[in-house]
Design brief:
It is a single chain. By secondary structure, this protein is α+β, with helices and mostly antiparallel strands. It has helices spanning about 45-55, 65-75, and strands at about 1-5, 10-15, 20-25, 25-30, 40, 60-65.
């Protein structure tokens, strides 16, 4: 497991499984799966968190329940 600070209040958690989880502030909000598919939370957060997600995801992104993102983060 590795943690990378990638911007102001933006952090990536790189898990040994190959999943990379984006945290905005201290909340997991999106992930890059080992398959190359991006997923993001279905929950609405602040304008800043939405900007963090949009800046981080590339290409097609699938919306998933927050509980799915929490599981990927190990929460």
């Amino acid at each position: 497991m590795r943690i990378n600070k990638i911007g102001s209040n933006m952090t990536e958690l790189v898990r040994s499984s190959g999943v990379v989880v984006l945290f905005s502030y201290s909340t997991p909000v999106a992930a890059l799966l080992p398959s190359g598919q991006y997923v993001k939370t279905d929950r609405k957060y602040s304008v800043t968190t939405t900007k963090h997600i949009n800046k981080w995801v590339l290409g097609n992104v699938e919306t998933k329940p927050q509980s799915y993102i929490d599981e990927l983060a190990g929460a």
